[in-house]
Amino acid sequence: MKLATISQETFSVLEQGDADLEIRGAAGLDIAGQGEITFLANPKYTPQIKTTRASAIFLNETEHIERLDVAILRTKDPYLAYTRALRLFNPAPRFAPFIHPSASIHETARVAADVSIDAFVAIGENCVVESGVKIFPNATIYDNVKIGAHSVIHSGAAVRENCEIGANCIIHNNAVIGSDGFGYAKDENKSWLKIPQTGTVVLEDDVEIGANTAIDCASVGETRIRRGAKIDNLVQIGHSCTIEEDALICAQTGLAGSSVIGKRVILAGQVGIAGHLRVGDDAVVTAKSATSHDVENGKIISGIPAFDNREWLRSIAAFRRLGDVARTVRDLTKKVEKLEKK
User: Fold this and answer.
1) DSSP string spanning 75-113?
2) pLDDT tens-digit profile of 283-320?
């Protein structure tokens, strides 16, 4: 692919280099070779520019390099441009229409003619599988499920009864969509009585669900993951939660029931959200943090219990000095005691 084409497709400006230079791939600064394009987004990797073997590089609007043998493409966001380049060189695979003889598809299911369904897939009663869907081996689709056009269900995944998957969704290996919500009532004998989980899960278009993630259905009503939300591996989404558009939920995060996660929220790894809370639009909860209260729009919080990130950083800095403070207090106490004895 010519550098001029990459420039056009990544919305970058070719500042230095031959527009007809052929580029065959994209890679990081440390591993890129001749014929590949790379990027610089983090200043700590700037020294690698001296040794990179890449033929071209995405740079922001202010970064300067002293190499004339590397083509330069200017862009506001080098990482975004690099991502677009990667997508150019690694387009989504296209699947030929195919249904494996071992697949079990109920006679009432409506399956489009151009789907690809691999070995030992099970599709239940009254399901709808729309055009271009790919289902890998050993996936299980319960009764009354709808899967939107061009979605991909990877092996081992299970989509439980009555759930709805939108168009262009990706469900990775061993994820479970629509497992029972964790709901019990204590009876007269102080034993747990299971609350029927009769609701559903709805994934809107362009949602991606990571491997081994579980999204519980509601007792009544629905758990809804809105358009463009991305959920990492090993995430637990409790019953009746709502994840708003373009939220990003990282690995090992857990959401208790009826949580509402706002638009473009980022929940970093191992975050905990208590039940019936709202995390406002554009908020960030940093890694290993947990909150038991609502979070304002745009707020960045850290810690357990989580509070303002800047205050948390100051608190952590003070915490590291507690040993010295305690030692100083002991020394001062001894001096005061000596003075009192005089």
Assistant:
1) -S-HHHHHHHHHHHHSPPPP---EE-TT-EE-TT-EE-T
2) 999 999 999 999 999 999 999 888 888 888 888 888 78
CATH for 44: 3.40.1390.10
Burial of 42 (0-12, 13-18, 19+ CB in 10 A): exposed
Among residues 15, 22, 18, which one has the least CA distance to residue 36? Answer: 22
Within a 10 A sphere around the Cβ of 50, how many other Cβ atoms? Answer: 9
Domain final residue, candidates 89, 114, 134: 89
Q: What is the pTM of this model?
A: 0.87
Number of domains comprising the chain: 3
Q: What pLDDT, in 10s, does the model give residues 179-212?
A: 999 999 999 999 999 999 999 999 999 999 999 9
Counting DSSP H helices and E strands in the chain, the numbers are 4, 38
Catalytic hit among 64, 239, 276, 293:
239
Are 324 and 299 found together in one domain?
no
* Residue 304 and residue 316 in one domain: no
100 in active site = no
